[in-house]
Write a structure and sequence with these properties.
A hairpin with a 5-residue loop joins strand 5 and strand 6. This protein has a 5-stranded antiparallel sheet, sandwiched between helices. The protein contains 4 helices and 7 strands. The N and C termini lie far apart (about 55 Å). The relative contact order is 0.20. Helices cover about 30% and strands about 35% of the residues. It has one domain: Thiol Ester Dehydrase, Chain A (Roll), CATH 3.10.129. By secondary structure, it is an alpha+beta fold.
Length: about 170
């Protein structure tokens, strides 16, 4: 399986912020942003693997500055690191004030996807080749984040071992 450059999985989507997209602070709903994030990231994963992919985790979503109704929002995603069947996708969210032209990074995120074969089992993905300084820096720290994901997943399994699936109204009676 041939390796692919990060740029081969790059996805760019730009959208505007409209009144129905905002919360009571008149800034973009976090959930609306996360919806866009997952869509562009999953497209990057599918573009890299050329397989069906599922979101395995959202490692982090860091909201750095509010997104206003005067902004356009550009989501840029690409695969930064790969395991055997998993792909880490980085997404940066850049706002542009449509009146002043000022651009800033509003949020960054790292998501993890798994490629699936026709039987819906994890399947191998190509390795990734970083070129830019940004891509190289993210790629170099990808293995460390993968280890943290595995540890977090194990702790999640341990936690769910004693969490009840009873109806909430049955727990308190």
């Amino acid at each position: 399986m041939n390796a692919k450059y990060c740029k081969e999985s790059r996805v760019i989507r730009t959208t505007r912020v409209f009144p129905n997209d905002v919360n009571n602070h008149n800034t973009l709903f976090g959930g609306r942003l996360m919806n866009h994030l997952d869509q562009v990231a999953s497209t990057s994963a599918a573009r890299h693997s050329r397989k069906d992919c599922v979101t395995a985790s959202a490692d982090s979503i860091d909201f750095l500055s509010p997104i206003q109704t005067t902004d356009s929002v550009c989501f840029e995603s690409y695969v930064t690191w790969t395991g055997v069947s998993s792909m880490e996708v980085f997404v940066k969210i850049i706002t542009e004030d449509l009146k002043s032209g000022e651009r800033k990074i509003a949020a960054i995120a790292l998501l993890n996807f798994v490629a699936l074969d026709q039987e819906k089992n994890p399947t191998k993905v190509p390795q990734v080749i970083p070129e830019t300084e940004e891509e190289k820096r993210l790629n170099e720290s990808g293995l460390e984040r993968s280890k943290i994901r595995r540890e977090r997943k194990q702790k999640g399994k341990e936690l769910t071992a004693f969490i009840t699936t009873n109806h909430p109204w049955e727990v308190y009676f």
